[in-house]
Model the fold of this input.
Amino acid sequence: MGSDQGFYEEKAELYREAENPVLLAAVLASLPVGGRVLDVGCGSGTLLGHLAGHAGYRAGIELSASAAAAAAQVADEVVNVPVTDDLPFPPSSFDVVVCADVLEHLPEPAGALSSVARLCQPGGAVVISVPNVAYWQARLRLLRGIWRYEPTGLFDSGHLRFLTRETLLELVAGCGLVVETLGPAQVPGLADHQLARVPRLLRKAVDRSWDTATNRLARRRPTLFAYQLICVARRTGDGPVDPPIEPI
Done:
């Protein structure tokens, strides 16, 4: 099971250096000066480290003991428990709650999202990122009859749920959150093996062209070209609401 602690001890090293500049920008834009932030599934604390000097209090939840220990070196508080456990934080105690690449690893993502959203104060932001299983490369694989799990990425072997733009909107709205923004993260660059046949002097130019083209397509058609989706939603304290933006 992808929610098993031993499984994520093995995963911790793979994701140790993972960074997401688009997610960081979304968190910074939602965080009031000196505000309190909780990073659910904080890994080794990369995001929390970047928030030093911006947040007044930085807390994390992490299943891997080794990753939690590393995160504790840069955060004010890190608890080494599953997100499905009772969490040692009072309701409405954070200005921003981050769920970055967490929900797809859980058997019941709606219940977990509802629980952590209650830790965000009314009017505060819940920032969510999930892989988009409708990404064009995933569709192409399925058309070819291929569904093969991998150590990381869209087909991470720890993924228990698979989300698209539409199902993410449904999940967020069903938890009583109001979507403020929903857009793509940066699309991954070309891998070394994909550039192997490109002359060395041209590789940087090809890589830059790929980045420009794919990220432009992701902004225009996130349902198809977004590798990852980043959602900023607000807690209102009310019941479920309809998503306020039209699907593409």
In short: The longest strand covers residues 120-131.
